[in-house]
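User: Just a sanity check before I run the rest of the batch. Below are the structure tokens for the first item. I only need the designed sequence back.
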């Protein structure tokens, strides 16, 4: 499966980048819990599966991004969420009721209570 996207250098015309994805990766994995930690040089995004009634979550994927790429991801998500909501309506946010406390300080061990 291939996807083409445009990149633009400040001094050059837009360039096309060919992005390839294998079949297994294209299937994706489900995550219903995300944990973000950071240091001065990187953001770490852990995507987890939390099963109902269990006090333990398994990390199924980890992304490590530079601060610049993390900010670019945030802007891309903001843009795409706005487009989604224009088309499908407002996304309801998850409430805290029944959810474990997941406010971690950077550098602290991750633990689900």
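Assistant: Here's the designed sequence for the first item:
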């Amino acid at each position: 499966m291939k996807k083409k996207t445009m990149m633009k250098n400040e001094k050059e015309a837009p360039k096309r980048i060919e992005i390839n994805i294998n079949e297994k990766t294209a299937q994706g994995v489900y995550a219903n819990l995300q944990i973000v930690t950071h240091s001065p040089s990187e953001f770490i995004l852990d995507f987890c599966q939390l099963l109902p009634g269990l006090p333990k979550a398994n990390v199924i994927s980890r992304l490590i991004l530079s601060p610049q790429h993390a900010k670019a991801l945030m802007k891309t998500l903001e843009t795409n969420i706005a487009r989604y909501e224009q088309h499908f309506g407002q996304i309801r946010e998850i409430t805290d009721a029944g959810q474990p406390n997941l406010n971690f300080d950077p550098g602290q061990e991750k633990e689900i209570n």
